[in-house]
Amino acid sequence: MSSATQPTHPSVWRLAWRQTLRDLRAGELRLLVLAVMLAVAALTAVSFFADRIQGGISRDARQLLGGDAVVASDQPTPAALVDAAAAAGLRTASTASFPSMARAPDERGGATRLVAVKAVTDGYPLRGRLQVRSVADGPVAPVDGAPTLGSAWKIAATGDFDGDGHADLVWRHTTLGTVLAWRMEGSSRLGSVRLFDEGKPWWRPVSAPDIDGDGRADLLWQHAVTGDVRVWRMNGFERVEAAFVRRVHSSWRALR
Ligand SMILES: [Ca+2]
Ligand SMILES: [Ca+2]
């Protein structure tokens, strides 16, 4: 008596393998693999392109800011914050921005224009480089560091302080209120003297008349808010005496 052969069921794996070979021969599977490869390539390209754009935007943003981060306020930066940044080894620079009017010299037409003034401290910008255009619509040229003296300072008065026959220049920093005197000989600067640096920008030198008649210039000041007028009697570039002259209405301004 022979035993009958029992029917066997093909394994699931074998069936799957046969099905795969059949699909491969029919070309459907190759089409599917090609579609997957195409999708992966497209996603990789888009991701790479997005990363490049993100990097470019971040780089441009840092250059626009002049640093990696900015603390903005209408008050001076708290000293504790500056100290914490210094303790962490960070480089810092301060800026102050405000709108103003600029006027060309009379010999150049005297045109006025609304301008945006930005005063900066040493070290600015921390990232990137500034570009300067010397003439309107002219080429721009990259420069190292901040703009030179003269772009954030304005001449407040002129007078011969040391009596050498050459007019000397008094500069005032428009935001910090610092006042400097340049000892001049013709168009050459022989030296610079810091006259006022007390963080009181509302006191402004307005002219340098010879108040005491010794043949050398003295310095006349006016308070920008109260209109108070004071005079510094000078010995060369040193203040000998400061005296209150009078209070005038703030709408009146002493002229040079
Ligand atoms: Ca002089
Ligand atoms: Ca004098």
Structure, explained:
The protein is α+β, with helices and mostly antiparallel strands and 256 residues long. The chain has three helices and twelve strands; from the N terminus they run H-H-H-E-E-E-E-E-E-E-E-E-E-E-E. It has helices at residues 12-26, 28-65, 79-87, and strands at residues 95-103, 112-120, 130-133, 140-143, 153-159, 168-173, 179-185, 188-196, 203-207, 219-223, 228-235, 238-247. The strands form four sheets. The protein has a four-stranded antiparallel β-sheet with strand order 5-6-7-8, with no helix packed on it. A four-stranded antiparallel β-sheet has the order 9-10-11-12, with no helix packed on it. A hairpin with a 4-residue loop joins strand 10 and strand 11. The mean pLDDT is 82.
Q: What tags apply to this protein structure?
A:
256 residues, alpha+beta, four-stranded antiparallel sheet, 3 helices, 24% helix, rod-shaped, binds calcium ion
